[in-house]
Amino acid sequence: MSLILQEVLAPEDLARVRTGLDASDWVSGKRTAGAAARGVKENLQLDGSDRRVQELERFVVDALRRHRLFEIAARPARLSRLLFSRYEPGMTYGAHTDDALMGRADDKLRTDLAFTIFLSDSGSYEGGELVVQSALGEQGVKLEAGDAFVYPAGSIHHVAPVKSGVRLAAVGWIQSFVSDLAQREILFDLSVSRARIAEAGIAREDLLPLDKSISNLLRMWAR
To answer: Which domains can be identified in the chain, with CATH numbers?
Structure first.
């Protein structure tokens, strides 16, 4: 299941992040690419060891966790470090799939989901679509600044070449309590339906059986 999260970052949040990006130094994105992806990755990234960058990471992750759909869609157990990326004209990230496990040898994170938070206004650059392959074919994604796209990390995907302008984004990975995509989608559908029923004014006691079922499914599937 793939999902668009709208307005993860409000305009004032975007302004703060962009100011931080402008004040930081960019390095080759090949530093953080896995062995298989290194040959097709042509972009720039911020140095994650910089304390200013780490502060930006925390700010963006906090905003992501506050989004009303993020918790019920991802069921996050752990999040990776964020990578802030920059694509200038001619830069691209060729077709690849993300590493199944990321991080230090003694603290590996299973990458169930990946996400991209778009930081540039969509009209300020040409090209640069995130293209994700699925059974339905290729899906090109180019969202408004502040929006995020969440998708299965095992998908083959690429970033199309930027033709003009600059594409800024923050990317990361999620280890979910519910690793099975179909189970996670069932829980998402039930949680969304529960919220809509509650908004219709149904009495709380009438929602308890649904709450019980959602909780018990999560107990069965979480790991």
So the answer is: 3-176 (2.60.120.620), 181-221 (no CATH)
